[in-house]
Amino acid sequence: KPQLLIDTDPGVDDALAILMAYAHADIAGLTIAAGNVGLGHTVRNARTLVDLVGAATPVFAGCAAPLVRAADEDAAFVHGQDGFGDIGFPEPAAALATEPAALALLRLTRERPGELNLVALGPLTNLALALRLDPTLPARVKRLVVMGGAVTGHGNTGKVPAEFNVGFDPEAAHVVFEAFPAFDLVDWEATLRHAFDDAEFDGWLATGDRRATFFGKIAATARRYNAQHDRHGLVAADALAMAVALDPTIVIRSETRAVAVELDGGLTRGATVVDWKGRLGRPARANIVLEVDQARFAAMVRHALGVPT
Ligand code: BDR
Ligand code: CA
Q1: 188 close to ligand 1 (CB < 6 Angstrom)
Q2: Which residues form the Inosine/uridine-preferring nucleoside hydrolase domain (predicted)?
Q3: 64-122 pLDDT, tens digit each
Q4: Atom 10, ligand 1: which residue's CA is nearest?
Q5: What is the ipTM, given to two decimal places?
Q6: 14 lines ligand 1 (CB under 6 A)
Q7: Ligand 1 centroid to residue 122 C-alpha, Å
Q8: Which of 113, 123, 236, 284 lies at a 20 to 30 A Cα distance from 157?
Q9: 43 contacts 82 by C-beta, under 8 angstroms
Q10: Residue 169 beta carbon below 6 angstroms from any ligand 1 atom
Q11: What CA–CA distance (Å, rounded) separates 108 from 46?
């Protein structure tokens, strides 16, 4: 089984990704970032998920704001004010660890060098902070998979070419992209190419177990928003990144390129700039995932929701 360390800002698609991780892997810890909604909500949502699956995974609270500049926007208009569709879940029982997320990332990778796959599903603030504290972190990580970026400029934020996770904290993404010698990048546009058919997904929700019921509830607001905004089918960016983290052989097509983050542009701050033609002479570190085996991706999601085979 893969061993994972998940940095996340739950968030509806984060929740699906985490359910996939519980179904297919061991999770050493959940480190939590602000992003989709504020840190208080994202921490609480992570604990709600730990309760749902009956796990004892430690949850570590991370940075409440980006490294340098305040974020322009959150994603409450998609995920709900509380990030989980405003269902009004009770206060979770799962404990919150006292150690800050960046320190937990460093400690856990020191305890298990070379064993943990790091999966980043939110703004990269915690990871960047950990790297500033200890630049040797990448050498202890087995693999890094990042959900982030919009590699051909069709972003999903007010700064048009920027994707949300990179746009929320561009400096953090810059630090991470420069620090890791190699990583997998699952971008927003790949996500749109790997949406699930709505009717098919509804069938899974109807036949799955309590995880499916839970996900159906929290996803309703986001699904409505997407349907009204020309995003067809069930779009789950973080779930796609998790599929790639859980099973790299699911990738059918990818290209390794240098990726940089625009930190200044008035219209483009937070854009991921891909050097497709290798003009800049920078090291090509990002393996940009372009296509995965959709049937295997679907099977992983069904298993995570308890849909009978
Ligand atoms: C990313 O932003 C968030 O809204 C999602 O959870 C995902 O991580 C997509 O751009
Ligand atoms: Ca996320």
Answers
A1: yes
A2: 4-298
A3: 999 999 998 999 999 999 999 999 999 999 999 999 999 999 999 999 999 999 999 99
A4: 164
A5: 0.99
A6: yes
A7: 6
A8: 284
A9: no
A10: no
A11: 18
